[in-house]
Write a structure and sequence with these properties.
Elements (H helix, E strand, L loop, with lengths): L12 E2 L23 H25 L3 E8 L5 H8 L8 E5 L5 H4 L5 H4 L8 E5 L8 H4 L2 H4 L12 H18 L2 E9 L2 H13 L9 H7 L2 H15 L6 E5 L3 H18 L9 H16 L1
Amino acid sequence: MADHQYRLSHHYRIRSGEGFRLNTIDPGSTAHAPISDKRAAQAALADGVERMAALQDKLYAQDRWALLLVFQAMDAAGKDGTIKHVMSGVNPQGCQVSSFKAPSAIDLDHDYLWRANQCLPERGRIGIFNRSYYEETLVVRVHPELLARQTIPEELVGHDIWQHRFRDIRHYEDYLGRNGVVVRKFFLHVSKQEQKRRFLERLENPEKNWKFSAADIRERAHWDAYMAAYEQMIGHTATDSSPWYVVPADHKWFTRLVVADAVIDTLESLNLAYPTVSDATRRELAEAHRQLLEE
């Protein structure tokens, strides 16, 4: 893992979307990796997971901050595997994962941020959104017929609805930040060629058939539209307080290193510490210690 002088994740952090172009980041890049092979990467990730677990323990004990990690990606980019490996050492009591699939009828009867609000992490905890409210600027934009299902008053649905949603999301994340919820967002940037390879692997390996859906191929046909939507989404919602990390995802070991480094970097920036015990409490502890020894 990177130290304070060398932060691997900073190479992929977007804090201002002005002039952002997705094609400037190579999905197959491992150019900034501090190691040279997969085995070394696994050792580095294990070290990072250990550091993260120690920081998360302080986050939980301090009970002041919450951390929200948002993951967006095309199918087969490795979201599930990244979450599994990077968060493998974190205490389950202090971490929660929410997966956002197609909205239910109840969801559609509320504003699009409603269901996300139900899943925000409590203070002292790490919350993970596997997909998120950002789907409202991605799949709904690529498939505008989905917008009609939301039964929004017609006079509120115009060509500038996406700009309104970008603005709403920026304000929402500002609000969360002002209330102690730190937001970090990850776009796992896989290439179309690598997605094809992973799809074929799922189809040709019986043990991985369950991972494949016919819908994956239908969405792949809209690749260019999705890339344009992602570029605009990142460009309009990357801020200094809630940055995006556009993480090369063709090499899973590298993806996991970058994400782990970003999480560690964020937790370290919060100056976490265990709560200070008062003098009165120390006296109580000393008395309890004495009583136990005398039993």
